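COURSE: Structural Biology Practicum
ASSIGNMENT: Worksheet 4, Part C
STUDENT ID: 0417
INSTRUCTIONS: Below are two proteins. For each, the amino acid sequence is given first, followed by its structure token string. Answer the questions at the end about the second protein only.

PROTEIN I
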Amino acid sequence: MVGNIRKVYDYLTVKQKKIAVAELKADRLELQQEVAECIDDYPKIVREVLLHTLDSWTLEIEQLEDDIARDHGAQM
């Protein structure tokens, strides 16, 4: 699934990528708060999925920020 999302990002403008990063960061913050407050309330498999999701979103944000920097540099 992540590979498919990466393909979609190839078609976004720098401005759209910046919006995507902002939204991902907001969602990640919300999930981080949920995990910090309630992680012990979930079964082990759900905890693993939540933590994997946090890791995936962090990686995706980093990759998008790299794309933005590269695209911005190419436009100059």
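PROTEIN II
(use this one for the questions)
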Amino acid sequence: MSHGTSVICRSLLILVIPILLFVGCGSIKTFEGSLESVKDESLMLDCSAVINKGKSNANSVGTLCEVKTDENTDIMDENGENMSLEELPKNRRLKITFKQGVNLEKNQTGTAQIVQVLNEMK
């Protein structure tokens, strides 16, 4: 490899590595939120807590995030029993596990691998 090619490769690495690291920042695999509605195989959840996490001036109160489902999404009640999308109780907290990391702050939507109803506080 010539000296010029080596310099170009090194320069590309210096540019590419920070970009790859930045893309992963802010991405989450799981979150919990209150179910607001179900429409066309998608869930609308309150994700304010995730978006406001670590911020001193929280201005995202009541922010809704879309979570898609598909035929491979496992939907479970609080005991781990399978249930349908239509059976999900409104205004209950759900734990969402995405198939891939999603950045909710950038309004990305993701497809859920697991949707589980959480136990209510007693």
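ANSWER KEY EXCERPT:
Q1: Strands lie at 28-39, 42-46, 64-68, 74-76, 93-102, 110-117.
Q2: Residues 16-24 have pLDDT under 50 and may be disordered.
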